[in-house]
Write the structure tokens for this entry.
Amino acid sequence: MGGRLGGPARFRLLEVLAAAPASLTVSEIAEAVGVDQPRASRLVQQSVQLGLVQREADPDDARRTRVALTETGRAMAGGMRGHRHDTVRTALAALTPEEQTEFIRLLGKFAAAWPRD
């Protein structure tokens, strides 16, 4: 899947759009994905060419476009989430219940300490 998608940034693009309550601007995508605006524009353009996203007119500002998943993009994003959940479930199954509890505790501590800037 990764080769066709083009890497982690495109994966994040699909994740961000799948989680969004409405279509997003390229600027909103750049911020959510963690890339600069030119990179976000390229990701969107490549994703349009792959049929994963579509551009829509912004009803509030004719100068802007918004980006939304196509049905193909939505299916791919859902498949990636399902695959990721299955992979995590398989990895956790290798741990004892005590190790799972400790892992969850440490992961929570790690997430809490993650820089938010």
About this structure: The CA atoms of residues 9 and 38 lie 13 Å apart. The chain has a mean pLDDT of 87. The helical segments are 2-5, 8-19, 26-33, 37-49, 71-93, 97-113.
